[in-house]
Amino acid sequence: MNFRAFRIHNDANGYRAGIEEMRVDELSPGEVLVKAAYSSVNYKDALAGTGKGKILRRFPLNAGIDVAGYVAASTDPAFKEGDAVLCTGCGLSETRDGGYAEYVRLESKWAIPLPAGLSLRESMVIGTAGFTAALALYRMQQNGQTPELGPIVVTGATGGVGMLAIDILTCAGYSAHAITGKADQFDFLIGLGAKQCISRKELFWSQRPLETARWAGAIDNVGGDMLAGLSRVIEPCGNIAICGNAGGIELATTVMPFIIRGLSLLGIASAGTARSIRDDIWQHLADDWKPRNLDRIETKEAGFDELEPVFAKMLAGESFGRTLVRFG
Ligand SMILES: NC(=O)c1ccc[n+]([C@@H]2O[C@H](COP(=O)([O-])OP(=O)(O)OC[C@H]3O[C@@H](n4cnc5c(N)ncnc54)[C@H](OP(=O)(O)O)[C@@H]3O)[C@@H](O)[C@H]2O)c1
Q1: Whose CA is nearest to atom 5 of ligand 1?
Q2: What is the pTM of this model?
Q3: How far is it, in rounded angstroms, from Cα 115 to Cα 18?
Q4: Is 96 in the pocket of ligand 1 (CB under 6 A)?
């Protein structure tokens, strides 16, 4: 059977990506063949699709780190034709063919049955971005974070992870504050649940090892100076979940926040999350942490042959919410 895929090559003819035809028997191996219904665009997809970041560890591969769809065939009896499933990360578009394709073959250990309470479409508006935001909260709570300790600040607030983090934190009973480079979007962020919005451009971080504490914790998508600044202003025993590097990869801080305030930095690596934690998090996302504003967080729908401008905007720091990718 022939189908279309957004495939990335890197060979003697250079790094290139685009739509091409392929056959099901050319896909990476796995027990479950899925007819894709939706995927989504994440920062990593923009890096992979343009060659601006080293995401793929072998070539060629189909792009797309997320997919949701219906089982077309399965050699694992745990899945039957027509079952709705989803997968985020788990090597898609890194070591195996990813979700920007009409058909995707998954290893059954990574195919998650769509939890009751979510549609396939909703699962991909959430996608890796929402899974990452939820994983950040999950790890913070494991390390003692509670709503009573005070507000949690989210950086890169108008991006996919940022918007979903604000919504999920609010569902979970936290007071979410937002730091954004887009001051004209304060009202939008307040509509998602943010209790306070701060312009990134007006933030000032002094170079003292500790500043007056301002937040009980943080979900950081930016890294660099932002993360260093945050490390100096978190209340005693707070957590910073480090999700992203949209603003840089360096981290210049001192030991003082750790030995005086007991700060914890929690690394968030969504792609490699263990299956048991994945199951827990998707249950939360379908239930008590289900974002209430998915219809507004999904700001764009695109075919998988319309992704180049979406990638360019994302890499320019101009993302706003989530782009859903549809098939058929
Ligand atoms: N660890 C993981 O497992 C994991 C999973 C998913 C994503 N990520 C990472 O998390 C970050 C966000 O991902 P995403 O999908 O939400 O991307 P996104 O939709 O493109 O959002 C990124 C946001 O970061 C802010 N930003 C962009 N450039 C910046 C700069 N130079 N300095 C400061 N802020 C900047 C912008 O928000 P404002 O204009 O509102 O400030 C932008 O909307 C990325 O670095 C991504 O690689 C990590």
Answers
A1: 132
A2: 0.97
A3: 32
A4: no
Q: What is the pLDDT of residues 167-219, one digit of tens each?
A: 999 999 999 999 999 999 999 999 999 999 999 999 988 889 999 999 999 99
3-state secondary structure of 130: helix
Segment (H or E) for 27? none
The structural domains of the chain, ordered by start, are: 2-114+293-326 (3.90.180.10), 128-270 (3.40.50.720)
Asked whether the beta carbons of 100 and 325 are under 8 A apart, the reply is yes
- Is any atom of ligand 1 closer than 6 Å to the C-beta of 317? yes
User: Is the CB of 123 within 6 Å of ligand 1?
Assistant: no
User: Which among 40, 42, 44 is the best mutation to test ligand 1's pocket, defined by most ligand atoms within 8 Å of the CB?
Assistant: 42
Q: What is the pLDDT of residues 4-48, one digit of tens each?
A: 999 999 999 999 999 999 999 999 999 999 999 999 999 999 999
| Peptide linkage before 60 cis (omega within 30 of 0) | yes
